[in-house]
Amino acid sequence: MTRHLAERVSADLAAPPPVVEAPTDGARPAPRRARRPVGRALVLYGLLLPGGLVFASVFVYAVVSALKPPDEVLASPMRWWPSHVLWSNFAKPFEQVPFGRYYLNSVVVGVAVTLLNVVTCTLAGYSFSKFAYRGRSLLFLIVLATMMIPLEVIYVPLYALVYDLKWVNTFAGLIVPAGTSAFGILLMRQSIDGLPDEILDAARLDGAGELRILWRIVAPMMGAPISALALIVFMATWDSHLWPLLVGSDDQHRTLPVGLAAMQADNAGTTGVPMLVAAAVMALLPTLILFVLLQRRFVHGMTMTADVK
Question: 20 to 30 Å CA-CA from 157: which of 150, 200, 245, 262?
């Protein structure tokens, strides 16, 4: 019996492997999609869904409160739906203060600061990633060290500099000091590190300059990190309050956060709460829409940076 079993194993080992016939129509077999375990997916969605509902309920309650009469906003017990809807609460901010001007100022400052950060951080990240020069590591270490300095520490000397340049109550004072960021440089440097050097060397052999390589090759391949950087910078600039309060104190240069704080001081009672909530909801809409449109590119850009080794 043992001899028979040995002969059978030897025959199986000596047999040629089975031949798999390729498709005759030239099409490749479709790859199998990895299926996520059902139990794991249920646990994941079970944890994320309650948190998402909590955050969504805050926004829904803010929108509903903006439509309530003043006596129902802080009523006890809390009423979710108003007895009668007051759309006029959304018009009152424009009647009380130059709210449209605040909105325009925030858009101008947010877009300008975002564009400046995209340009400067991409240039610096490309330099730190693909150029070899003396002191590069030390300079990059200094850039990273600035991330540990609180902004409030540098506001006093920065304001003195802006005052000497006569940039107080100007758009230059609101835009130029925020024109770059250490985080943006780090994000772009880590993302550009993932580009193969062979692609850039081939472009140099074809006679392309560094700016042309950056514009035609690097920037298109860095679309997701650039979108993530633009979203982060725009949201931070849109919500910034302290620096615009110091530099832009007049109505011609006041941004939305500063204008909302001034409106809150002028409407301390409960009668102005629906108007303040309506103004806050209108101020929230641009960043919310921008995040919904760019959320996939934002996640892709951050994961690209995390995958770089």
Answer: 262
Rounded to the nearest angstrom, the gap between the alpha carbon of residue 36 and the centroid of all alpha carbons in its chain is: 28
Q: Cβ(244)–Cβ(84) under 8 Å?
A: no
pLDDT in tens, 221-264: 988 889 889 999 999 999 999 999 999 888 899 999 999 988 88
What CA–CA distance (Å, rounded) separates 64 from 79? 10
97-307: which CATH topology? MetI-like fold (1.10.3720)
Six token digits for residue 219:
């920037």
Give the type of residue at 275.
Answer: M
**Residues 234/110, Cβ–Cβ less than 8 Å:** yes
Would you say 93 and 279 are in contact if contact means Cβ atoms under 8 Å apart?
Answer: yes
Copy the structure tokens of residue 56. Answer: 């969504």
Condensed to tens digits (0 to 9), the pLDDT of residues 115-150 reads 999 999 999 999 999 998 899 999 999 999 999 988
Token pair for 15: 């047999």
Question: What is the greatest pairwise CA distance in the chain?
Answer: 102
Listing DSSP states for 75-123 in one string gives -SS--SS-SS--GGGGTHHHHHS-HHHHHHHHHHHHHHHHHHHHHHHHH
Residue type, 186: L
What does the alpha-carbon distance between residue 289 and residue 238 come to, in Å, rounded to a whole number? 13
Q: How would you class 83 by CB atoms within 10 Å of its CB: exposed for 0-12, middle for 13-18, buried for 19 or more?
A: exposed
Listed in order, the ranges of the chain carrying CATH 1.10.3720.10 are: 97-307
Q: Ranked by mean pLDDT, which of 38-47, 191-200, 271-280 comes out on top?
A: 191-200
